[in-house]
Design a protein that fits this description.
Shape: globular
Distance between the termini: 41 Å
Number of helices: 12
Oligomer: single chain
Strand order of the largest sheet: 3-2-1-4-5
Radius of gyration: 18 Å
Structural class: alpha/beta
Length: about 260
């Protein structure tokens, strides 16, 4: 899935046109981007500035006491490199107000409950600023994450449009490099920052490079046996990933109604 510089430039221009179209159609004044310090939000910020100009993009950086300090550092690096206005909002007091495990005495951290609370608090803060400014929220989820359901409903999956929802993670890396995202951000291990030491690939149980090849072959209609042989992956592993895609499909579909 490697692209040439000409193809990457065309891709960047197409996404920028899409961003402008979304903002114009909504009669909005710009976009808000939640800056996590990771590559996805950095790329969205860079493309948004390219599409709209720095005065129409606002960044929100949302650390908490157990997050990696580098996340805030890289979020600021993106904002300051682009020259956009931004704010820093520590979500720790909100987690305490909820009585979240790991943030109040005597309650243990629950990965399923407490880690999902964080992105929902963060998206509330992002929409607060979007509503104040009459901006749209630019989503930062990529195609690999959407396929796998790797995100939180009404959290990081909540946005007004999915800026890079058509790009696999490996394509995100290529485009990020092309548009000038700092190399330190591109090279660091992807993490949602949900708990100490957490990484995306550990949770998914597969590298993004292999996952994207698998998803690409799946999109082309290849049989599971052919995918296993081509990627040297056991059928059980592919079956496990297919089950996860099926189980998490509800995260990317419209809400069911009777």
């Amino acid at each position: 899935m490697m692209r040439t510089n000409e193809q990457l430039e065309e891709l960047a221009n197409n996404i920028c046109d899409f961003i402008k179209e979304q903002v114009e159609n909504a009669d909005a004044k710009g976009v808000v981007v939640g800056l996590s310090g990771g590559i996805d939000s950095a790329l969205v910020a860079y493309l948004s500035v390219r599409a709209l100009g720095k005065d129409q993009v606002f960044g929100v950086i949302m650390p908490e006491k157990n997050s990696n300090p580098d996340d805030e550092k890289y979020g600021k690096l993106v904002a300051e490199s682009l020259g956009i206005d931004y704010t820093v909002f520590d979500i720790t007091p909100v987690l305490v107000a909820f009585g979240a495990g790991g943030y109040v005495e005597g309650k243990e951290f629950d990965k399923r409950v407490d880690s999902n609370l964080k992105p929902r608090i963060r998206m509330t803060e992002v929409y607060y600023h979007a509503n104040k400014k009459n901006y749209l929220v630019a989503g930062t989820s990529n195609k690999s994450e959407i396929y796998m359901g790797y995100g939180t409903k009404y959290g990081d999956l909540g946005s007004d449009f999915l800026t890079i929802g058509n790009l696999f993670k490996t394509e995100v890396r290529q485009l990020a490099s092309h548009v000038g995202v700092p190399k330190d951000i591109i090279d660091k291990a992807p993490s949602a920052g949900l708990w100490e030491g957490q990484t995306d690939e550990d949770e998914l149980g597969i590298s993004y490079e292999t996952l994207d090849k698998l998803l690409n072959l799946m999109e082309k209609g290849k049989e599971i046996d052919d995918i296993c042989e081509f990627l040297s992956i056991p059928p059980e592993k592919v079956g496990e990933l297919m089950l996860r895609i099926s189980t998490n499909k509800h995260k990317s579909l419209p809400l069911p109604m009777p």
